[in-house]
Amino acid sequence: MKQLIECVPNFSEGRDMSIIKQITDEIEKIDGVKLLDVDPGAATNRTVVTFVGTPEEVIEAAFQAMKKASTIIDMRKHKGEHPRMGATDVCPLVPVSNITMEETIEYARKLAERAGKELGIPVFCYEYAAFNEERRNLANIRAGEYEGMADKLQNPKWRPDFGPTDFNPAAGVTAVGARDFLVAFNVNLNTTSTRRTNSVAFDVREKGRVKRTGDPITGEIVKDENGKPVYNPGSLKAVKAIGWFIEEYGIAQISMNLTNISITPVHVAFDEVCKKATARGLRVTGSELVGLIPMQAMLDAAKYFLRKQKRSVGVSEKELIKIAVRSMGLDDLRPFKPEEKIIEYMMAEETGNKLVDMSLSNFADETASESPAPGGGSISAYVGALGVSLGTMVANLSSHKRGWDDRWEEYSDWAEKGQAIKDELLFLVDEDTRAFNKIMDAFGLPKGSQEEKAIRKNAIQEASKYAMEIPFRVMKKSLESMEVMKAMAESGLRASVSDAGVGVLCARTAVMGAFLNVRINASGIEDKSFASQLIKEGKEIEEKAIATENEVLRIVNEAIGE
């Protein structure tokens, strides 16, 4: 449910790890951010740091890291093989989940503006965050490097996007950008020949292979008017690839950088390599993911391979990940551990206290205890999740029924819709308890001074509104889930029509139970227009739920008969 972005700042220090440690310590101080990797290079005198988190927290951590770097790295003394122009040389933001590139661009520019204003560093925005086309390319911005930046900044054409036009000799110049997520993905072949593997790599990579006259191997290289080689493009956009031999495993690999997985997803790259390898008499034996991958990329891969089999994609997240791993052979060389490879799992909070992770008996015991939470709101969400799970089960059974092969996609769509609603309701099981705890925390705030009283009162009001909004979301999702049960009662597997009926009964209970929580939490809210609007909409949802329940039960009872 959270928005996540990745930040990959490059700092101009790769030899003194005590300096890098001071910078990464600033990152790790920020809640909501997780440091994933620190990769120093002595020859380049440069360190690439990777961390992930929620957007506001990520740009706060990035700013604090940039601030520290500007005070402890002196660019006047810096030497290294990699092109550079500042203590924090570049700082790209990358959308990971539940966030658009447009939103990421806004965060990048916000970070750039703050760094320029508060740190006194000239800052350029590049790639998607650039304000003009020439600045999209980082190489254009960095041209002249550190030594040439003082003069460059005086050129009106190269006025920085944020910060002073005067050169900062110690901190240099920084570029802040927004770019697509890059996935390093290797595909394994049943050969030891690097030459044959490179042939496949050249077939698929965007750059392709050198164009030749006559024989494609020995023919003369075709050159353009500038004397540069002309290339025949490969079949995959936004893909860089090369073949190499891995001594450790005794196989050859196609090593790919997928520079924009929205253009060429992992599963498309894998399938295309399979086709090109087969055409050259080779066979793909599996693949390897280097580094991390967003959850959505794995889910998209699983659904792609399921659809090729004409199988329902409406299965659990856990099952989808298993399917993606098996389909692409991601465990060919070593076990694939989702908790170490999928960014969202790396960011996941400890789950030991989550209600949805308890056993059924422990959940019941926890509910029956003297603690006021979990209460009716959490139970309503859980009942709703169980109800739509039944509807989803009927959809999945129907999609696999012998003789209904031409309707698999129809039922798959219903199952996928049901899974999404189920996941949201399960999230709301714990969120309702968190909403209650927010109220308790607000009541616990100090109330000595007038300012403290005002802060406490505002916190109580905001928490109370949230405690209304969560069960209201349960109502909306549970009503929405009834569409699944109705469709399954009308056209799903006849032997499971009673399950659709039980599902709609659960959904009605979830709607009405959640509405009780909406109403009782309204009593403490001073914003009467807010409270009355939710109650008005809640009554409409309740009426629709009862009407839909009656309609579905009529269909179910007619199907069951006397």
Structural account:
This protein has 562 residues and is α+β, with helices and mostly antiparallel strands. The chain has three domains: 175 residues, Formiminotransferase, N-terminal subdomain (Formiminotransferase-cyclodeaminase, Chain B, domain 1); 165 residues, Formiminotransferase, C-terminal subdomain (Alpha-Beta Plaits, 2-Layer Sandwich), CATH 3.30.70; 206 residues, Four Helix Bundle (Hemerythrin (Met), subunit A) (Up-down Bundle). It is 52% helix and 14% strand. It has 17 helices and 13 strands. The strands form three sheets. Strands 1, 2, 3, 4, 5, 6 and 7 form a seven-stranded mixed sheet that branches. Strands 11-12-8-13 form a four-stranded antiparallel sheet. The mean pLDDT is 93.
What is the element layout, followed by pairings?
Layout: E1 4-7, E2 10-11, H1 17-28, E3 33-41, E4 46-53, H2 55-72, E5 88-97, H3 101-119, E6 123-127, H4 138-142, H5 145-152, E7 174-178, E8 183-189, H6 194-204, E9 209-210, E10 231-232, E11 239-246, E12 251-258, H7 266-279, E13 284-290, H8 295-308, H9 317-328, H10 338-341, H11 343-347, H12 360-368, H13 376-399, H14 408-443, H15 450-491, H16 497-522, H17 528-560
Parallel strand pairs: 5-7, 6-7
Antiparallel strand pairs: 1-4, 1-5, 2-4, 2-5, 3-4, 8-12, 8-13, 9-10, 11-12
Helix pairs in contact: 1-2, 2-3, 6-7, 8-9, 13-14, 13-15, 13-16, 14-15, 15-16, 15-17, 16-17
